[in-house]
Each structure stands twice: as C-alpha cells, then as structure tokens.
Amino acid sequence: MADVTLRKVVKRYDEVEAVRGIDLDIADHEFVVLVGPSGCGKSTTLRMIAGLEDISDGDIMIGGDVINDVPPKDRDIAMVFQNYALYPHMTVAENMSFGLRLKRYPKAEIKSRVDEAARMLDIVELVDRKPKQLSGGQRQRVAMGRAIVRNPKVFLFDEPLSNLDAKLRVQMRIEIKKVHQKVRTTTVYVTHDQVEAMTLADRVVVMNHGRIEQIGTPNELYHKPATKFVASFIGSPAMNFIPCRIEEIAGKLHVRLTDRIVFPLPPARAARYQNVPRSDKLLLGLRPEHITEAKQHSEPGVETFDTVLDVTEPMGMETLIYFTMEGTQVCGRVNPNAGAQDGGPLRLAVDLNNMHLLNEVTGVVL
Amino acid sequence: MSTVTIDKAAPTRKVKYGSMSRDRAWALKWSYFFLTIFAMFSLLPPLYMLITSLKSSAEISAATNPWWVYNPTLANYFEILTSNQFLRFFWNSAMVSIFVVTITMLISVPAAFALARMRFWGSATLATGVFLTYLIPETLLFLPLFKMFAAFGEFTGIQLINKWYVLLLIYPTLTVPFCTWIMIGYFASIPKELDEAAVIDGASWFQTLTRIFIPVAFPGIIAATIFAFTVSWAQFLYPLVFTTSTDQLVLPVGIITTLIKGDVFAWGQIMTGALLGAAPPLIIYAFLMDYYIAGLTAGATKG
Predict the structure, then answer these.
(1) Does the distance separating the beta carbons of B207 and A72 come in below 8 Å?
(2) What are the boundaries of each domain within chain A?
(3) Residue A99 is nearest to which of B201, B212, B216, comparing CB atoms?
(4) Are B197 and A103 an interchain contact pair (Cβ–Cβ within 8 Å)?
(5) B8 pLDDT exceeds 60?
(6) How many helices (H) and strands (E) would you count in chain A?
(7) B201, B206, B213: which to substitute to probe chain A, counting the most A Cβ within 10 Å?
(8) B67 to each of B51, B52, B59, B256, B268, how far by Cα in Å?
(9) Does domain A240-359 have CATH number 2.40.50.140?
(10) What is the mean pLDDT of residues B138-157?
C-alpha cells in the first residue's frame, strides 16, 4: 500500500500534448477516479502511472519513490483493462496466478492467494475454466482477481466496466466498491461515466484537454463546481446555463434573464456577487432539481414564473420538463402530479439558494 | 389492456414457401458440379501415377488401356524401397526439411514478435521489406547465390557447394520472409492489452513471447510450420543447382537425375518415387489440417 503523487506530469506525442502538467496527490488507501470526455488524457495519465507510457516531463512517485524510469513490473502495481486482457490459453486460476508464478512464489502461497481472491469475488467454481467459457461479468471478476492476488501497492482500473451491459455495470460497480472496502488498496480508476465516478470515488478528478479541471469529493463537485465544464459534466440531466446579467434595482441585486423575468437574489448570494461587474456577460447555472413546480406558499430565495413547456419526459418518480428561455433549452424536474403536459403552461419555481453564476467568457464559476 | 386486431381485408396473395430451399438446392447442385470437375482435375494425375507405379516397364510401353492394370506388380515399390540410393534421397530430404523448419521457426517467430510488438525505429518499413524479399523469384536468385557460395569457397576454403547442408542456408531465404509475414499478421491480431497485462504481471519480453504469444498464436505457428515444410520438401531448383553428387541429392532431384538415364525414362519407378515422396506432406496435412485452417482464417471472425 502506498500513496501516489504526480508532479507536473506531461505527455507529448510528437506535436500533440495529451497531458499538460498534472499535479495530483493520492493518499494511501484512497479511491480516486479520473473522469472526463474521451481524449482528455485520463487514460494516458493512468498508463503513465502503470509504466505503459513514458513520462515526457515531470515526476510520478509511488510510496515516495520516483518511478519515472522504473519498468512496470518493478512498480508493484496491478491493472484491470477495459477488454479484460485475460490470457486465453490459461484457466482462470492460471490467469490469476501468472504474475506470482513469474516471481517464483511458493506453490502453497500461490494457491492460498488464488483461493482467497476467488472466494472474495465469488468465482470459486470457475477457477478451472478457460476465459472463453465465461460471461463478460465473470471475465471482469477474473481480471480483478488477477490484480488482487498480486497484493500490489496500487490498483489501476482502465474503464473496466465499459464493455458490460447497463445492469451488470451497476452490479460490478458495487462489487468493485466492496472489494476496495476489504483490501483498502490505493486505487486509481479511469472512466468516462460520471455516475461511475460519483458512486465509486473518495475523490473525483475531472479532466479536460489534458488538464485537471477540479479535484474534490463527489458532493463537492456536484454542489460547488469550479468551472462550467465540471458543472455541465457532473450530474444528469446536466446543469442548465441561462444567459443573464446582474442588475441593481432599488438598491438590491437582481439577476435578469429576459426582459420579463428578473429575480431578486437571496441575501447570501447577493453578498457574494456584489463585486461582479454589471456589464459582464454571465450565465445562470441551475440544476434541473432546482427548477420545480411552484408551491402554494413561498419560501425565501425561491422565485416563481410562468412558462409554456416544449416536451415532458415522465420518469415515474418525477417528470422531466423542457422549455425554452431566450433561445436556450432548460430542463427541470417536477412532481409527476404537477400537471405538466407537452406544450402546456406551468408555473415554475427556481431555487436561487442553489444557483451558480458563471462568467460566460472564461467559464469560471463566480 | 392490449387488443389484437386481425385485418380481414389483408391481401390474400399466396406466399411462395420453400423458395429458399429451392435456391439452396440449385446452389448445391452447381457446387457439386464444379467440385467434381476440380476433384477430377487434381486427383486424376495422382491416380494415373498410382496406376503406372503398379505396372511393369513392359506393360507401360505396351499399347493397352493406360487406365487399367492387367498384371499388377509391386516390383517398382520393392526396387525403390530397397535401393540405398533412394533411401539416401529420402533421408537427405527429411534432414533438410526438419532443419529448415526448425531454423525458420527459430528466426521468424522472434522476428515477427519484434516487428509486430517492439516498436522501434523503422520497424514498419522493415516488416514491409521482409515481405518484399519474398516476392523475388528464386529463378532470379540462384545464379547470384551460386556465385556467392563459389566465391565464399574460394576465399575461405570452405566448400559448401555440392553438400546437402548448403540447402539449410538457402531454403530459409524462401521460408523465413513468408513465415515472418504470416506470424506478424497473427501476432498483430493479439490484443495489445494482453502483452501490457503480461508486462504488468512482471513478464520480460522473452517471457511474453514464450508464455503468452506462442501459445495464443499456436495455430499460426502450425500454419507457418506446414508452409516451411512444404516449401523445403518440394524445392527443386536450388537443390538441382547446388547439389550434384548422388549421395547429396534430395528426393525430387534424385528421382529425376537417377531414374532418367539418357533418354530412357524408368516411368514405373519415377511414379513410385514421386508417390512415396508426396506421402510425408500428405500425412502431416492430414494430422494438422484443423490447425492449418484455423491459422489461415484467424481473425476473420471474433471468437
């Protein structure tokens, strides 16, 4: 077990910079998820930690030792691949024990480790089968077993659930979390699925264009995103961004969305946005759950307005509604009994206590 | 509640059932027709060889039905199989083929692995180059090669010409490029993650090759082996040029040079020798056919 540290890590392919200076401290026992759209450099970063890619610049440390030029086999890491990468000619047990056999561990030790991992992953009855006789989920378990038996300092997961169907993915997600709770090995996990990132991680690292956009716990990222990219990437349906301006009306700060719709800011928000230049082009960031049907009694910071819906999507426990505001499509979540209908009018409430204000040009959350 | 509506006014045009199987039947008939023609085309010569090998010289030259044996005799077989000369040819061929196959596989498997997997400067160009060398015909090469070995003999005093083992140096120029090319294709079809997993598991390049790549690519290796064996067993031009003494000859050349005396063709023995010579590749094919086909069609479909 060990901590992992990345210092100004850069990866260049000829002209292209895939990773542009990453600083990251991963504590011992921590489960960190790198998440971002494809091409954001998350897999490259993981492969540099694994030693499968050279590091163009900067340092990577595992347990305090710089491992830039240490070959993968001496880094004491284990990796789980997206397509499982099981050795097709070996049985499950042989697959899991391959690394130990190469290191000439005693036979009894190998057997007990394989047995233990097989029990942990519930694949005891599969140990004599070949990979082609296994289902996708079972293969992924074997791939994890192969990592566990090595008892490495760090686990690396490269989109391990992408090849599974949706239902199995949820199941394996829980499985991975359980395994981590048992073995407590420092884990770096790469995915493009923000739900996977949120559910698994102690801390999530959101990456974009080879840089880290934000590092934080799942709740921090959701409730306090630092940039427009993070705000839009985390959460589904995504956060709404409505063009707006800050105005002072009768000595109080207001946010103006359209000619007709102007909301007074709640006192806490007003204090925070006091110094925002009035002429700046801004975006009002609102998560769909903060746009709901208007209630009978008013609450502080909750403002109401009337609109005509474009489309509704009944989800069962809630109904997603879509309407247009100044040319921008906005999504809200209302009670299924709120009477939302395709093309119908609805009185909506926005919870400005949970609003975000972003600079439209820089994308920074103010 | 769901309701099933039956459209009473639906058109009542009769559907032609069985048209699929009728098409299939025709396709089958045509395939059998052509298969029969091809089978006759390729199997009649060996049959004719078999018939001729069972005849005496007198019967062969007699004006009787060439497709019928009136007085079957095993004299040709007896003569060939008891002739030390013929057994020598057989032995030479076997030695040459076995050594060439071994040398070829020892060179082309590691070479293919290096070219397919160890990305180094110029590896892609080199891989293409390997294939291009295979395209140069032996008819173009045998004279320069002969001159080279003659010069080598002059300078070093080591005479390689007219020794059967000179063929061990020459045949690989035919087999290594092609086998390397087959194996490059085969290794390239193995997912990259497999060697990455092996590397992380602690395997060296050599262990990755021997413990992962060779077992996984085994059908491909069988295919390459069969190819190398067939080429060296059936090679005619090079041994004809490089070996002349009867004790150094391989089977195909031996049969021609010893059984054709001037303008006298010992047809019975030639046919017998050729049939016996064709047996080993046939036996190997029969045993390894499944692997061979799997090797040739690898990567065509998943799983």
Answers:
(1) no
(2) 4-224, 240-359
(3) B201
(4) no
(5) no
(6) 9, 21
(7) B201
(8) 7, 8, 12, 24, 14
(9) yes
(10) 90
Residue ranges of domains in chain B: 23-61, 77-296
Q: What is the pLDDT of residue B302?
A: 36
Q: Do A73 and B207 lie within an 8 Å CB cutoff? A: no
Tokens 């059932």 -> residue: B17
Over range A40-60, report the average pLDDT: 91
Q: Would the CB atoms of A81 and B207 count as touching at under 8 Å?
A: no
Q: A4-224 — its CATH code?
A: 3.40.50.300
Tell me: the pLDDT tens digits for B180-239?
A: 998 998 898 888 889 899 999 999 999 999 999 998 888 888 888 988 998 899 899 999
| B290 part of contact set with chain A, CB < 8 Å | no
Q: Does B202 touch chain A (CB under 8 A)?
A: yes
Q: Is the pLDDT of residue B264 over 90?
A: no
Whole-angstrom Cα Rg for chain A: 25
Answer whether B203 sits within 8 Å of A102, measured CB to CB: yes
pLDDT of residue A2: 86
Taking residues A87-102, report their average pLDDT.
Answer: 92
**Which residues of chain A does B199 touch, with a Cβ-Cβ cutoff of 8 Å?**
51-52, 71-73
For domain B77-296, the CATH class is mainly alpha
The pLDDT of residue B176? 92
Query: Any residues with CB less than 8 A from the CB of A44 and at least 6 apart, and which?
Result: A11, A18, A19, A53
For residue A71, list chain B residues with Cβ-Cβ distance below 8 A: 199
How near does any CA of chain A get to the CA of B297, in Å? 18
> Which of B191, B202, B203 comes nearest A85 by C-beta?
B191
Residue B191 tokens read as: 């997912």
What is the distance between the alpha carbons of residues A251 and A332, in angstroms, rounded to a whole number? 31
Q: What is the reported pLDDT for B159? A: 85
Q: Determine how many CB atoms are found less than 10 A away from the CB of residue A5.
A: 18
User: pTM of the full predicted structure?
Assistant: 0.79
